[in-house]
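I trust your eye. Have a critical look at both lines of this record:
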Amino acid sequence: MKKLMLLTTLAALAMPVYAQAPTPLPAVADAKLRAEIKRASATKIILVGDSTTAVYGGWGPGFCGHRVKGNVVCVNMGRAGRSSFSYRAEGTWDMVLAEAKAGAGVYDKTYVLIQFGHNDQPGKPGRTTDLATEFPQNLRRFVEEVRAAGAVPVLVTPLTRRGFKNGKLDDSLAPWAEAARTVAREMKVPLVDLHARSLEAVQAMGPVEAMKFAPEPPPVHVRDAAKSGTTISGNTPANVAEPVGQAKSRFDYTHLGDEGADFFSKIVAAELVKAVPELTAALVP
């Protein structure tokens, strides 16, 4: 009996299986309107940089969250503590290129905004780059590879720090901003001069008012000292290495809280529209 059942089972398994025809969908009253639906179009914007661009501590969250319209996919690849060298060395740049290539044939266009400088400065072992040679070379290579991936590169000069001395903003990032401008000019790359615009805005505010942009409020003695026109500790000086990882939730003169992210992302959006007019309909400046 068992042998007969086994033979019957094997015979059944050997029989060809015919796929059942799908059940036809019921007729709908709006079939004509459904047929007229057009294919969606979208633009992709990828943000590349250090903590001043990143999800926590940078202007990126304000940009992706409030400065792009619904037809834009915004990807924040900013990473705290990275320089133009270490960002590539650790493999994050490979992820950016993969993200850029993934948009081919799907998105109308993909734009890659690139901002470095803070961690390329001296005093960051393993990350510091030579200002005269390596830093601009790294930017050029980024530009070339973004173009090869079929995307549009946009260089962004580094966000200013907000430390003051005798009423004047301590512009420690000016040489790195100028290097980015030079590369943009030579390679005919759109430029968002965030450094110039942020420096101008923060200088006009003064040291006390500009403290509102930090992730956390300043200690009372730090705020009181700033009233003299000179800021004191509590900041992230240019010669102190920012740890690799997520920016800390504390007061400093480099990183941004929600108000700072909103303020400076608005500047980025406005400058991006000027640099790339075709993005006007995609952004909320």
The chain is about 35% helix and 10% strand. Confidence is low (pLDDT under 50) at residues 6-11, 235-240.
